[in-house]
Amino acid sequence: MRIVLVGPPGAGKGTQAAFLAKNLSIPHISTGDLFRANISQGTELGQQAKAFMDAGDLVPDEVTIGMAKDRMEQPDAVNGFLLDGFPRNVSQAEALDVMLQAEGMKLDAVLDLEVEEDEVVKRIAGRRICRNDSSHVFHVTYAPAKTAGVCDTCGGELYQRGDDSEATVRNRLEVYHTQTEPIIDYYKAQGLLVTIPALGEVADVTKRAMDALKK
């Protein structure tokens, strides 16, 4: 299966992508991983991306599209893939269609993880990270530390990252609404969109997505 996963920041795309890819036996291709891999390997596209990022500029669509194309042509993606973070706008969605059509392929579904905006803010703004080990993550509502502000695992100080503040989250949501949300209508017009309510336990959301794909 060839699937695109969309949804606002905090919808749980990364978590769901990992579970869905495993259940479907297809690679999970995330934009973040593509950038890190290309930059660390020093590929031509990675060098181009790094130059833009170091200058504080957005990486142009053609660089992102090039990375995605290279990754989708790898042997493990022959029988399908799950895209997470790409396409990010309608131009990228159109480019993806052209890429697939050139290979005689098409998308099977676009899963839209639906979460209310206030819930997104609550999820992200409530995160607290351990200063000693960033893999120790808590949440003031959903997974609170036994002692407020103290990591259960190592006793380190818990803090809120700057990009997790409510103001920053709402700004990220505005960018999502402006740049990425239009691809929902783009794919809806193609009959590919499947909306998945993303509230509740992770396993429940995964089951909803798998059930929808079986249909």
SSE layout and pairing:
Layout: E1 2-6, H1 13-24, E2 28-30, H2 31-41, H3 44-54, H4 61-72, E3 81-84, H5 90-102, E4 109-114, H6 117-125, E5 127-130, E6 137-139, E7 158-159, H7 166-180, H8 182-189, E8 193-197, H9 202-214
Parallel strand pairs: 1-3, 1-4, 2-3, 4-8
Antiparallel strand pairs: 5-6, 5-7
Describe this structure in words.
The protein has 215 residues and is an alpha/beta fold. The protein is 48% helix and 15% strand. The protein contains nine helices and eight strands. It has helices at residues 13-24, 31-41, 44-54, 61-72, 90-102, 117-125, 166-180, 182-189, 202-214; strands at residues 2-6, 28-30, 81-84, 109-114, 127-130, 137-139, 158-159, 193-197. The chain has a five-stranded parallel sheet, with helices on both faces. The protein has a three-stranded antiparallel sheet with strand order 6-5-7. α2 (31-41) crosses α4 (61-72), α4 (61-72) runs parallel beside α5 and α6 (117-125) crosses α7. The longest helix has 15 residues, at 166-180. The radius of gyration is 18 Å and the shape is globular.
